[in-house]
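User: Predict the complex with 6-phosphogluconic acid.
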Amino acid sequence: MQLGLIGLGTMGANLARNAARNGAQVIVFNRTTEKTDAFMAAHGGEGDFIAAHTIDDFLKAFTGQKAIVLMVKAGEAVDEMIKELLEAGGSGLVANDIVIDAGNSHYHDTERRTKELAEKGIHFVGMGVSGGEEGALLGPSMMPGGSKEAFEILKTLLESMSASDGANGKCVAYIGEGGSGHFVKMVHNGIEYGIMQLIAEAYDLLKRESSLTNDQLANVFAAWNQSDMLQSFLIEITEKVLRKMDADTGKSLVDLIKDAAGQKGTGKWTTNAALDYGVAIPTITAAVDARIISSAKAFRVEQSKSSPLSVQPHEDMADLIAQVRTALSLSVANAYAQGFQLLEAASKEHNWNLDMSEIARIWRGGCIIRSTLLQHYQKMFAGDPTAATFIRNKFSPDAQLQWRLIVALGALRGIPLPAMSASLSYFDAYRTERLPQNLIQAQRDFFGAHTFERMDKEGAFHSDWK
Ligand code: 6PG
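Assistant: Here is the predicted structure with 6-phosphogluconic acid placed in the model:
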């Protein structure tokens, strides 16, 4: 099949090469012509590529129904490109053509674009793509939503391009209508934020409580990557990061990196969406907050002078490592659970009919949050009681105690563990029969006559508190 691809940044170029390797004739276009030429010089011989220097040439290169992947910056650039394709005159988009937005677009934008293009009979597919540069080239996880008809046309190509799910399937499935594909990708990124922060906290605690070198810490992560709860891409790359030496200084590279995390916004969007749908995702929100706080480097340096922390090295390292592993495992399981809960809520609200088991399955390979744990979620959502039991058993009283000891240790030592403690509080709150919100209700009624419900009788009540 013919596939157009606009935007030859790293992700776009790699997706184009992936599609060509899997048998598509790929028509490529980039606004900066030099980029198109550089792409052709480097990769033109790898497959059946047509390079276009103008939008007009790009559109004319299609022999039939057009299917065009946009890999441009999320936001206005997507709208501008669609406008240009629509207004291109004779060879521009016509009814039945397909536009696939493969960037990290906001799902509200995708909902709007789907409707606008559907009015013209044009299929719009908002497709989340995860896996970074390497995934885009060798096999990403793909989350297409929007036009089902278009998905059916693209299905064979997308299946051949995507990663294996480790069990005879491919990491792509039709997600649902409208912006659901981008919503699922956004939540994927929220979970990604949560797990990355949790790993960073485990690393920080171990580093500050011990005299372990980065190489020894890498060995710890390597061992954790063998466990059924923690085996994952993010633990795997953490080991590699900890082993990397800086060629110029001969020092460990991670130690030289400024401790201020960047963000492009998908984590924040996840938290905003969770607030909109009334779902608590405290682990993910704590991860967004932690990035915000990290960026105030100068302020932190100043504050650290006035209240320095003294940390005593921990004596029983094997014990500590085992406890941190448990605390991390349970917190990570919570981060996934919060993401899935958000998906459930949005699915209901939009009638997307999201298939949680399928989403867990297509996250098993190719994407940033791929892990062994996801196969248990996949089975659990498919109704397998043994998978639910597997996850529940991991929260045994002994494991919970280890989790609490680690969160308490962080508090005692003044080592911030925002995502880990948020996970623990989330877990504790959801298994607490009586929470203190009776007092909140009383306060609300006290100052605002907001009324309250009673446990002993039906109805709405107001009291004269004064
Ligand atoms: C992926 C990644 C990718 C990217 C995000 C997050 O699934 O391949 O999530 O989409 O890493 O943009 O980036 P920030 O950390 O900059 O928000």
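Residues 104, 130-132, 189, 192, 262-264, 266-267, 367-368 surround 6-phosphogluconic acid (CB under 6 Å).
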